[in-house]
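Schema walk-through. Below, the input block comes first and the output block second. Nothing else is stored per chain. Lengths vary across the set, and this one has 116 residues.
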Amino acid sequence: MKTRLCTVAASVLCASLPGSPAGAQERLWSLSADTWAQPRDGRSVAQMEPLPELAAAWFRQPAQRILVRYPGGEEGLLWAHELRSWLIALGIPGADQELVAGSHQADRIEIELVAR
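--- output ---
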């Protein structure tokens, strides 16, 4: 069942992405608290901006790490852990994610792909 969920999530992510030139691939994203506050399930998270673009970029080059910079404090930490769990459900291993306190804005998680 878990494998099927990951396959379905990856299919939804890839199908929802427009093509982009290799040189124009995004490496920095921002996830707002307002966006995250929407009701979440597998389909909505798989389509929640900027997660489809982030996941597609990671799947193109899975040797990268995903750096999740979250707002400090307990609320920010809980948000980051929930996001991490959803990214794992979408097929991105937890070992390829790093959570770091210190987002530049209290109402945003900043996400970056970084080389190993």
